[in-house]
Design goal:
Elements: H1 2-17, E1 44-47, E2 50-53, E3 58-60, E4 72-78, E5 85-88, E6 91-93, E7 99-107, E8 116-118, E9 133-134, E10 138-149, E11 152-160, E12 167-169, E13 174-181, E14 187-194, H2 197-204, H3 220-223, E15 226-229, E16 232-235, H4 236-242, E17 246-247, H5 270-282, H6 338-343, H7 362-373
Parallel strand pairs: 5-17, 8-13
Antiparallel strand pairs: 1-2, 2-9, 3-4, 4-7, 5-6, 7-10, 10-11, 11-12, 13-14, 15-16
Length: about 375
Amino acid sequence: MKAVSRIIAVGLLTLGLTGCSDQPPLLKTTGDDYPEKLSEWRVHKISKQSLKLNDGVLPYDLNTPLFTDYASKLRTVWVPAGSSAKMVDGDIQYPVGTVITKTFYYPVDDHGHRNKVNASEGSAVLFTEKEGLPLEKVHLIETRVLVHQASGWMALPYVWNEQQSEATLEWAGESKPLELVHKNGQTESFTYMVPDANQCSGCHAPESYSKAIEPLGPKVRHLNRDFTYASGSENQLAYWEQQGILTGAGDPTVLPANTLWPHGREGESLNKRARSYLDANCSHCHNTKGPGNTSGLFLSMDTPPDTRLGLCKRPIAAGRGSGGFAVAIKPGHADESILTYRMQSKDPGAMMPELGRALVHGEGLEIVRQWINKMEPEC
């Protein structure tokens, strides 16, 4: 019966999305009459029971990604014909009309369980540009759409239905009960939260005094890595230039690149691995202009290794978020640092990040703990 259900679901999805490739993705530069159905964006299509991308839509990946309860992610970018993104002051500016999507999914286990999540990373990545995402092997949860309009970027959350036939715009977000299976076999129930449209700006608005949002992932230091395309493995920035959707990138070897999660590239230090993790997971708030700037804690890659990074830094506002500890980072003592306390908390009043997770990311926490423990004690 499970196999029959999966075939029916795939058939329904085919009815919903087949034919999307007959037209380019939707060019939506003005107006707030956003599509109710994800298929109307014409970013994805169905072919041979796989979720594939429309012509001109490029997949991409990040060096060190943001943790979201062990979900796998299919990321895409589309730039309208005749336009291109440009490198300006070391970062990427995307033209009006650009559509960026991120689809969150979990693999289906060998027993067909769609609501059990394995606490593992890397092995869950099932997408290839040639074969797409095999629908019988995944449980699609949500697709987030970022569209660049003349008035700025707009974030739209789409939630996949239980039949996996379509995703619908849900302004209020959604919740999905799931179960985590740890590596030791123990299980942990949790609720996966799809953010509402307003919560999107909580992370995607890089300046605390403005509600204007922008993409977080597709920046130079995150994109500067290889991706295996149908034609072979190439650096993403170089490939984007070849495809005409990016100009001015130049030589990727002289551009910044965060470490390749989880083990890094040959010769990369523990310091870079930990800093890259904090940069990807925390710096969208904890930067000099972000919502977390009042804390005085800045976790972007260019922050000097001093009190601004949290070393021996006392909290500006004490409370249960401090866990009773004195400083953000106590060199040599990870278990006495506020930073690691908040990373391993699931208390809504203490946990960091505040949004985007219900689980503790054990692997990320361990890297940060090792980094702190190797520091010379100095407080």
